[in-house]
Specification:
Strand order of the largest sheet: 1-2-3-4-5-6-7-8
Number of domains: 1
Order of helices and strands: EHEHEHEHEHEHEHHHEH
Radius of gyration: 19 Å
Largest sheet: 8 strands, parallel, barrel
CATH topology: TIM Barrel
Structural class: alpha/beta
Low-confidence stretches: none
CATH architecture: Alpha-Beta Barrel
Strand content: 5-15%
Shape: globular
Length: 304
């Protein structure tokens, strides 16, 4: 199979990088002591790069509420970096969600990633459908508006370059994104993707719909291809055939797999950089290596 490689840039990688690059990182709250140690190693390695912010996820159905809060407050206390706490609509009333938001504000957290969220998985393994509570927020747009009433948070929301799997159409998905922005969000962080054209087409659709908020591409370095496939299937992300080809035969070759993963992620970031993107949100999966390498390519260096 022929794997297309763009020919636009014939000079050194990122040779003309701008000085206004921003990065942000996403972490998830750990479940075990070993996972906790891995998370804090990653935070310690990436914090000196001074990201614009880091975000901490919120499990399906609010299942990691306390672990998310503990992780957010510890990162803020120990690094001084702005931390964005994920917060969802699932499994809680408006009053309960508002109380969680007030607790974050009182802890000094000023940035929330407001998401509709996913309900807990169906026992059969099938994707569960979201059903709002009668006393809850119906969607992320309502959540954004509700958080605006609680406190003057900076609010980020999610976006889907390849369309949310439950959206009726790409146009309906963009209309919903516009509702979230109009409700008070200042940026949208996208689901991960592997083809730069996916993001660029999405950016064009958003601009045509009058959306002027920052659109930040979510970048997932593929440290484990099987895991990436599972995440893609849950979120409607397309796995290109060329990507499958690149990772074939590398299951038992971790060093080669890491090299391929770094190359793929660097090429994606380079293409987006050429198209004017200057803020990248990196899904770390609580591992620092590939995220650090991408930041280095973008000119980010540790500061003391």
């Amino acid at each position: 199979m022929n794997i297309p490689f763009p020919q636009r840039n014939t000079g050194p990688l990122f040779a003309e990088r701008a000085e206004d690059i921003d990065v942000s990182f996403e972490f998830f709250p750990p479940k075990t002591e070993a996972m906790e140690a891995q998370l804090w190693r990653a935070v310690a390695e990436l914090a000196p790069l001074r990201p614009r912010f880091v975000s901490v996820t919120y499990g399906a159905g609010g299942s990691t509420r306390e672990r998310t809060h503990a992780t957010v407050t510890r990162i803020r206390a120990e690094t001084g970096i702005e931390v964005a706490a994920h917060l969802t609509c699932v499994g809680a009333s408006r009053a309960e969600i508002d109380a969680i938001a007030r607790r974050y504000w009182e802890a000094g957290v000023r940035h929330i990633v407001a998401l509709r969220g996913d309900p807990p998985a169906d026992p059969s393994g099938a994707r569960a459908r979201f059903a709002p509570r009668a006393d809850g927020y119906n969607d992320a747009a309502e959540l954004v508006a509700g958080l605006r009433r609680v406190a003057p948070f900076e609010l980020s929301v999610g976006a889907y370059p390849e369309v949310h799997p439950e959206a009726a159409s790409a146009e309906a998905d963009i209309r919903h994104l516009r509702r979230k922005i109009e409700a008070g969000a200042s940026r949208a962080i996208t689901q991960f993707f592997f083809e730069p054209e996916s993001f660029l087409r999405f950016r064009d659709r958003a601009a045509a719909a009058g959306i002027t908020a920052d659109l930040v591409p979510g970048i997932l370095p593929v440290s484990n291809f099987a895991s990436a496939v599972r995440m893609a299937e849950m979120t409607g992300v397309v796995i290109p055939a060329w990507l499958r080809t690149l990772f074939e035969g590398l299951d038992d070759r971790p060093e080669a797999r890491q090299l391929v993963a770094a190359t793929v992620a660097a090429e994606l970031v380079r293409r987006l950089f050429e198209e004017g993107v200057r803020h990248f949100h990196i899904y770390t999966l609580n591992r620092a290596g590939l995220a650090y390498a991408l930041c280095h390519l973008l000119g980010k260096r540790p500061t003391t």
